[in-house]
Amino acid sequence: MDEIVYFDRYRKETEVEKVYGDKALRWTYGTRSGRLSLHLAVKRAMFSRWYGWRMDRPGTRRKIAPFIEEFELDASEFVREVDDFANFNEFFFRELKPGARPIDPDPSSVVFPADGRHLCVPDLSQCDGLFVKGEMFDLATLLGDRDLADQYATGSLLLSRLCPVDYHRFHFPAAGVPGPARLINGPLYSVNPIALCQNIHILATNKRCLTVLETATFGRVLLMEIGATCVGSICQTFASGAAVAKGDEKGYFRFGGSSTIMIFPPGRILFDQDLVENSLRHRELYARVGDRMGVAV
């Protein structure tokens, strides 16, 4: 894959993604020596814990201002001043000011759970692949539960990919009552399309957390957070069993790119047209948390 192209919902045009750590990523997944290092070290939790420890060091504060400038982030959205972050990891899982991500008010709508690049599958039984035609992961492997996979075999799925440049807190897409988060352990491969085009099954085998959200509008919605290289920590901030509103924070990722997946019961959601059209082209749609992604049917 030479370039990662996505469609920006707001600018109404295609964009080429600026990849943080692009050279290292392409070396790791595109060369023999890189793939050897991937197998021996990079995919392992120990490597991500070490990298996370590095990003917690006070000296990493000097990376923050150049990062903001290079990737054109809007620091006026941050709750904290740039100079107040003690290290890069604190900046990475920063909070945003109230109102920075308005939540769509329509009671029948469901919203994107995170800032990022999104792909949808209206009917999992009819999916011809995500990033590459014909390439799709196994649902039972993803969920770690064959019976649950059978219940959602014709359900609808949204994959949201967060880049290192994105706001890295994830939110509830609809109002409801969440159950506990169940950890499913696994390796920590990259979830960048450069890696996923080689092996889509990364999404179904990486370390991940599964939460069932009971909703009045959409039924039982499955919410999953997927770790990745340099993302050893998926931090949940919600309280199991306590009612949540649409757009409430669910948790955050520590350093690195990562993904979330939502799976809806069959026939309960109609995805927005721009999301469907771009997904049919195996092209991600960029949209922000709180914006409408579909409506109940």
List the helices and strands and how they pair.
Layout: E1 5-8, E2 13-16, H1 22-30, H2 32-42, H3 45-55, H4 64-70, H5 88-92, E3 109-111, E4 116-121, H6 139-143, H7 146-151, E5 156-162, E6 169-171, E7 177-178, E8 182-184, H8 193-196, H9 202-205, E9 208-215, E10 219-226, E11 234-236, E12 249-253, E13 258-264, E14 269-271, H10 273-280, E15 284-287, E16 292-296
Helix pairs in contact: 1-2
Enzyme class: lyase
Protein name: Phosphatidylserine decarboxylase proenzyme
GO molecular function, one term: phosphatidylserine decarboxylase activity
Explain this structure to me?
With 297 residues, the protein is an alpha+beta fold. It has one domain (1-297). It is 24% helix and 25% strand. The protein contains 10 helices and 16 strands. The longest helix has 11 residues, at 32-42. The relative contact order is 0.20. It comes from Rosistilla carotiformis. This is Phosphatidylserine decarboxylase proenzyme. Keywords: Decarboxylase, Lyase, Pyruvate, Zymogen. It holds the Pfam family PS_Dcarbxylase.
